[in-house]
Design a protein that fits this description.
2-enoyl-CoA Hydratase, Chain A, domain 1; alpha/beta; eight-stranded mixed sheet
């Protein structure tokens, strides 16, 4: 450890007993240290110092502190009840820190990272010129080393004693994060309690993945200010991590004991993005000849595709991925449960897996809206696809929906706009995309996940412009004509293969995918990896040109 970390650790010496603010129980300090500062009685997460946070997150012996130059102590000559320099001197003496953040390079499970950890004890973790400079230097170090950047936040907001110069740190740090985006470098925020004001409205919320500790609060304005402004009481869980997760503003809430592993998984994923190509299979696992498929009445295929016992997104994810970190939210205000996605691994290589999640039991089907995505679900999918493009990770989508959610609320939120935006995004996404229709592929809601380099259809899945019932009601003017509509729409796997809409068919076990989830997942994994092996050698230009040509040919009368 350098002198800075040593001074910070010495200043952090605490009494033998600590009263938990969560349950008011006295906890022996050494016991609290063993639980990483989490109360063993109620689970309250006590604040950690920046030095302890770095020592815990980074591999032992890997910590190399960054020591950016300190700006002028008192640029405004500011004094309230006390001169600003006196407050700085007291903060430095109490914490052993030069500023409210400690930055270091190091490794997490052997992968290099740059970490900036804020310390609330230093003037409430306020964002002043010193903090802004340190965050920016850390981001520039991550850029130079092409290492993921992890920020641990704890702040009451911008530092008032530095006036407009403190405000400018929001712009300065945001610009630094933008450069990391352009360079394709993963950024992660770990939100701790509290994170408010200028920090929340700049670098804390600009990262690719945002994880929060249980109960941690984050917002633009503090609750007392909001209550005074609106003249009303706020919900009890307002601005907590759990509230933020439910509103699609963060990716996950993680207890402290699991945070290092979660961050390590993400860092390892970024480190291995773009690794050597996928190994081609010895035999082609995909059915490409329609004659090999059993002929079945289309209406029966429709019923099978809708069987609630067929594997869902969650069922497939748990079987085809070696590891998975689900990511949540559209970062605007919604975490649509009908859409799920996150970063996972197949055969030691990272993928972004996303798709529709229906469920098996009635309660889950209702909670998941039967896999019908709202606009927020399409925005969530778009966010994850952009992250995959930034990291250079292939995208795999699993499609199983009767269609996008209709209704007043969806229209008010711009359902058509979000579907269209996803279509445009996927046409130019600069990474391989493999789409698999695993159940129902209904209308634009399915296509919003279906612009891909390889489009596969499970043997008992369907893909169509409209449901047979909808088609029958409109054209036959008789819902009972749905079987005739199903036959006319050519929505079964064999027809889709003949039409050139599907590149191949994923075989299902005897009795269908519902009869054997494990075998169905094994077939899906084999077909996905085979498709990725075909696509991996292609350059970005070839990938995009071929994808464009694929969809350009439909309706031209050319042989498919």
């Amino acid at each position: 450890m350098t002198e800075t970390l040593t001074r910070a650790a010495d200043a952090a010496a605490e009494p033998e007993w600590s009263r938990c603010p969560g349950c008011a129980v006295l906890v022996y300090r050494r016991r609290l240290d063993r639980t990483l500062g989490v109360c063993p009685e109620c689970g309250h997460h006590h604040r950690l110092t920046a030095a302890r946070r770095l020592a815990w997150l980074l591999d032992a012996g890997s910590v190399r502190p960054l020591e950016p130059p300190l700006p002028a102590d008192d640029p405004l000559g500011f004094a309230d009840r006390r001169p600003y320099p006196e407050r700085l001197a007291d903060a430095r003496g109490a914490t052993g820190l030069d500023e409210a953040v400690l930055c270091a390079t190091g490794t997490i499970r052997g992968d290099e990272v740059v970490v900036a950890a804020m310390d609330f004890r230093y003037l409430g973790g306020s964002l002043g010129s010193g903090v802004g400079e340190a965050i920016t230097v850390a981001a520039e170090t991550a850029l130079a080393r092409r290492a993921p950047f992890v920020i641990v936040t704890a702040s009451g907001g911008a530092r008032m004693q530095e006036g407009a110069l403190a405000l400018m740190q929001m712009a300065k740090t945001s610009a630094a994060l933008a450069r990391l985006d352009e360079a394709g470098i993963l950024t992660i925020t770990l939100v701790t309690d509290p994170t408010y004001g200028g920090v929340a409205a700049s670098y804390a919320t600009l990262t690719d993945v945002i994880i929060a500790e249980p109960g941690a609060r984050m917002g633009f304005a503090g609750p007392r200010v909001i209550e005074q402004t609106i003249g009303a009481s706020l919900p009890e869980d307002f601005q907590t991590a759990e509230f933020l997760l439910a509103h699609g503003l963060i990716d996950d809430v993680r207890p402290r004991a699991t945070q290092r592993a979660a961050i390590g998984h993400l860092v390892a994923t970024a480190a291995r993005a773009g690794a050597a190509g996928w190994d081609p299979p010895e035999t082609d696992p995909v059915v490409r000849d329609p004659a090999r498929l059993a002929e079945r009445p289309p209406a029966e295929v429709v019923r099978t595709s809708r069987d609630v016992q067929r594997p869902t997104f969650a069922d497939y994810a748990s079987r085809i991925l070696d590891a998975f970190a689900e990511l949540h939210g559209d970062r605007i205000g919604d975490d649509d449960p009908a859409v799920a996605g996150g970063l996972g691994w197949i055969d030691g290589r990272p993928v972004m897996l996303l798709g529709h999640q229906k469920g098996h039991a009635t309660r889950e089907l209702i909670d998941r809206n039967f896999g019908r995505a709202r606009p927020g679900g399409h925005r969530k999918a778009a966010r994850l696809m952009r992250l995959a493009a930034k990291l250079g990770v292939p995208v795999v989508t699993l499609i199983d929906t009767s269609g996008a959610e209709p209704g007043v609320a969806a229209e008010e939120e711009g359902q058509a706009f979000t579907v269209a935006a996803n279509l445009r995004l996927m046409t130019r996404l600069p990474v391989p995309i493999v789409a698999v229709v695993t159940g129902e592929g209904g209308s634009g809601g399915a296509l919003a996940f279906g612009i891909a380099d390889r489009v596969l259809v499970c043997e008992n899945a369907t893909y169509s412009v409209i449901s047979p019932e909808g088609c029958a009601a409109i054209l036959w003017r008789d819902a009972a004509a749905a079987p005739d509509a199903a036959a006319a729409l050519r929505l079964d796997a064999g027809s889709l293969l003949r039409l050139g809409v599907a590149d191949g068919v994923v075989p299902e076990p005897p009795g269908g995918a519902a009869a054997d989830h494990a075998q169905a997942a094994a077939a899906l994994r084999a077909t996905v990896t085979a498709a990725l092996a075909e696509l991996a050698p292609l350059s970005r230009a070839d990938l995009l040109d071929r994808r464009h040509a694929r969809f350009r040919r439909y309706g031209r009368g050319e042989a498919e």
